[in-house]
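Need the bound structure for coenzyme A, inputs here:
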Amino acid sequence: MGEIYRLARDTDREFVISFTRNTWEWGDYIPQVWNDWLRDPRGRLYVAEVDGKPVAILHAAFLLDNSVWLEGLRVHPEYRRRGIAYRLNKYVIENLINEGYRVFRIAIMHWNTPSINLAKKLGFYEVDTWLSLETKIGNLLAPQLETICFLIEDIEEVWNLIQRTDVYSLSQGLLCLDWKWIKFDKEILKQLLRERKLEIISCRENILGITTPGKTRYKAITLLKAQNLEDLQVIANYLHFVKKLEKRTTIEFVFPEKLRPLATLPKQTIFEQDKIIVMELKV
Ligand SMILES: CC(C)(COP(=O)(O)OP(=O)(O)OC[C@H]1O[C@@H](n2cnc3c(N)ncnc32)[C@H](O)[C@@H]1OP(=O)(O)O)[C@@H](O)C(=O)NCCC(=O)NCCS
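Answer from helper R.:
Posting the output first, comments after.
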């Protein structure tokens, strides 16, 4: 029957879940997002079918900056190293170029050599490196600290604050939101705020970080002006005591590697640190 590249269907679910449940030691998030991705009005889920089986998947999300965010690439272990990931990516990228998309981005953990090699082979190049710090939220809670964080909704104020942060200039506006990197400008900020897709955590006239509203399990907090451990404790307090996200056991912060002094924080033993390579393809 050979190889077919196509959009995913409901009937692919069982087979895809069977090989994506344990991609890594800790498992994988694909089973949790499958239903949302299949019905995503702002994205498309593709599969590579070999001999009637959906042996590889790739999700393309259409972001507000008109870029395409590629994520969730998985190839069944028994079908790896046959060029399937390469051809699936090519198929998706070429189709989307024909639809007018010009910028494609991905984020890859620094230890994932197969994926980095694949991205380079496809023509992607590194645009930035970010760090993630993950810890149990209980490690950071400090009820004695001020937790008066507030939400700002005034676009001018938010835009001025964001633009003036070191993170904004270091990353040239390419900020992480819900594990997708998007080029922020005032219009995008307006749209995100209008659609209630952005939560800004500020405290003492500082914009500590941004995140997406809601209780998604793998939510990351993008640090903007947080400077030290105490700022991270304030954010943790805010999420736990004010937003009442008591069920969250872990908390994860992300920021550009170039950012000092935050880059010294991983030395605190409470954090598990990882490095994320953000890559881009422009046509
Ligand atoms: C990464 C992954 C998608 C690659 O799928 P694949 O179908 O085996 O990749 P391909 O056969 O198309 O390989 C294309 C290129 O990728 C690179 N590559 C793939 N596997 C590699 C490996 N094990 N070691 C080094 N490079 C590798 C090579 O550059 C290769 O080109 P080459 O064959 O000319 O050397 C697959 O290993 C996988 O599903 N891994 C687990 C999930 C994952 O890491 N997803 C990506 C998250 S960002």
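Comments: The chain has two domains: 3-101, 131-276. Helices lie at 13-20, 30-38, 84-98, 113-121, 155-163, 166-170, 186-194, 229-242.
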